[in-house]
Write a structure and sequence with these properties.
71% helix, mainly alpha, globular
Length: 262
């Protein structure tokens, strides 16, 4: 029977598919760590009070990357080369979403609008990350190898999402409301396209590794396209709403250390 749990279980049980899964995840997380580090270093004076939270955000992302690498090492596996078409972070940048790496590599201070752009981009992508980790937490919280990692990363992603809500609401109150809504909508509509394309690419690679029959591959592709249609029509709206989070000052303290095996 084809289900989300069975699909993930099949990927996790095979060394090569597990290797690709962890490598893709680690690459995206560590890229996010680098981006947050540069944004913290270049933040404008008007937003310097935000820097400790941006640093904490980056430290969490780096930690997640180390956790996925540690999971590979525990199974005696080396990281795989991440296919370009599965690189979610870089494809978002290619579509003009978020702050360009070329800009972050320069030692020029960011503007307040850049910080708004960073937080709006993060609000959209952290929504996706939070939902994905909730799914893994639902099915694999008790997994002997993945359990601790899934619980920690899921909690961190919820903190990141709460932080984005809270800071964007603060900036909206200071006069950036219309700009925030415009950027959120642009980011959300671009993200759902990139997510569809990356999902199709990842499933194609997994199908080749695991030897899926054409009928199963076609069924999964149809499901991915179906999710995109839903998100293009109405689902994107969940990514642009802003509300005061239950977790206040979610990134106000020190980062939680990674599990011992990481």
């Amino acid at each position: 029977m084809l289900s989300v749990k069975n699909l993930f279980q099949e990927i996790l049980d095979n060394d090569e598919s597990f290797r690709l899964f962890c490598s893709i995840a680690a690459g995206g997380e560590m890229q996010g760590g680098w981006e947050n580090g540069r944004i913290a270093a270049l933040a404008p004076e008007s937003q310097r009070t935000l820097v400790p939270k941006i640093v904490r955000h980056g430290a969490d992302e780096d930690k997640h990357g180390r956790i996925f690498h540690a999971l590979l090492k525990k199974r005696g596996l080396r990281p795989a080369e991440v296919p370009h078409e599965t690189d979610y972070t870089m494809l978002l940048e290619k579509h003009g979403i978020g702050l360009a790496h070329e800009q972050l590599k320069r030692d020029e201070p960011l503007s307040e609008l850049d910080i708004v752009t960073y937080l709006a981009h993060s609000r959209v992508t952290e929504q996706r990350a939070s939902e994905q980790m909730k799914t893994l937490h639902k099915y694999f919280a008790d997994h002997p190898d993945l359990g601790r990692a899934v619980k920690m990363i899921s909690n961190d992603e919820d903190n990141h999402l709460a932080y984005c809500h809270e800071e964007l609401l603060r900036l909206a109150r200071s006069g950036h409301g219309r700009t925030i809504q415009r950027i959120l909508r642009e980011c959300a509509l671009a993200e759902i396209r990139v997510y569809r394309d990356v999902s199709l690419a990842v499933m194609a690679h997994m199908g080749r590794i695991l030897g899926w029959p054409m009928a199963r591959a076609a069924m999964l592709a149809a499901g991915i396209h179906g999710v995109y249609v839903y998100e293009r029509l109405v689902g994107w709206r969940r990514m642009v709403s802003l509300e005061l989070p239950e977790r206040r000052d979610a990134l106000g303290g020190p980062a939680v250390p990674a599990p011992e095996y990481a």
